[in-house]
Amino acid sequence: MNFVELQIGLMMKDKSDRQAELGREIHAISCSSKPLGSWTAQRGIQECREACGGHGYLAMNRLGDLRNDNDPNCTYEGDNNVLLQQTSNYLLGWLHHKQRGQGRIESPLESVNFLEDFSSILQSHFTPASMEECLDSAVPLAAYKWLVCFLLKQSEEKLAQEKARAQGDFEARNNSQVYYCRSLAIVFIEHTVLQRFHDLVHDEDTPADLRPVLLRLAALYGLWSLSNHMAILYQGGYFCGKAPADLIQTAILHLCAVLKDDAVALVDVIAPPDFILHSPIGKADGELYKNLWATVMQGDRVLERAPWWKEFCSDKPAVGSLCAKL
């Protein structure tokens, strides 16, 4: 809907500052959401493949095809690591805007508005004292706001250091990517996704009967994503001691157990139909082994002997005549 709003403005030849800023913001969000989507899919398909054991790499189940089809998504339409530079440049531009006293940090979609409280956010720390408190998506959301601010500050300082070494702009930006600008763009889009998820769950228009499961799912997504940035949270001092990591890990395991019975329904919400997925173990009826056997039986010449059976029987080696070469 945000993109539709932008397109309507373009068709109506809107030349306002808001329209221009909306275009910049959508560009920054899309340049980081594409890497997040393709990398999450890549990781998800691999975990599903491994979770299915031997069935996971059986060709008829098509998990290998899904993985292979998704892999180019990480490169075409813009390589993920290159695209992320667009998002970090956008965020650094807002910080410089604030530092030069050119006004508040505000954007049409409000994805960067929290940066107006940059200094106070950096002074915050992890406060939950129990696992139950961590079951609210507001907990990882607050941590993500701190992460974005911390990495924005670190990236700006790193970029300044590289430029001070009389390096060109390209070299300075290139040397500021790993651990800095790249990480900044990733945590920003993860924060944006979680913020929208959190807002949706608490929206009055969200059906009341769906809200409980969405609350748990939002918390699980937030905590699981946040767990990938534990090192930075400790490095910057947002986490202190053993308790924060323990609480988050315990909360993730608890939410996985609670959501287990809703997993099939949640997947079915976005699952493609059987004829698109075309996988025996992925059919909606859940008849895994029945579907596997039916697919095997539909194969070409599956009830016939192998074409080489006579050759093997006529020249059968004597028992004990074959020795290992190693």
Automatic annotation (TrEMBL):
Main location (coarse class): other
Domain of life: Eukaryota
Key words of the record: FAD, Fatty acid metabolism, Flavoprotein, Lipid metabolism, Oxidoreductase, Peroxisome
Sequence ranges assigned to domain Acyl-CoA oxidase C-terminal in this UniProt record: 138-314
Family from the record: Belongs to the acyl-CoA oxidase family.
GO cellular component: peroxisome
GO molecular function: acyl-CoA oxidase activity
Gene Ontology BP terms: fatty acid metabolic process
InterPro entries: ACOX_C_alpha1 (IPR055060), Acyl-CoA_oxidase (IPR012258), Acyl-CoA_oxidase_C (IPR002655), AcylCo_DH-like_C (IPR036250)
Keyword Amino-acid biosynthesis: no
Pfam family, any one: ACOX_C_alpha1
Function statement: Oxidizes the CoA-esters of 2-methyl-branched fatty acids.
Pathway: Lipid metabolism; peroxisomal fatty acid beta-oxidation
Occurrences of domain Acyl-CoA oxidase C-alpha1 (ranges): 16-92
Name assigned to this protein: Peroxisomal acyl-coenzyme A oxidase 3
The species this protein was found in: Coilia grayii
Catalytic activity: hexadecanedioyl-CoA + O2 = (2E)-hexadecenedioyl-CoA + H2O2; tetracosanoyl-CoA + O2 = (2E)-tetracosenoyl-CoA + H2O2; a 2,3-saturated acyl-CoA + O2 = a (2E)-enoyl-CoA + H2O2; hexadecanoyl-CoA + O2 = (2E)-hexadecenoyl-CoA + H2O2
Compartments, record wording: Peroxisome
Keyword Lipid metabolism: yes
Cofactor(s) listed in the protein's UniProt record: FAD
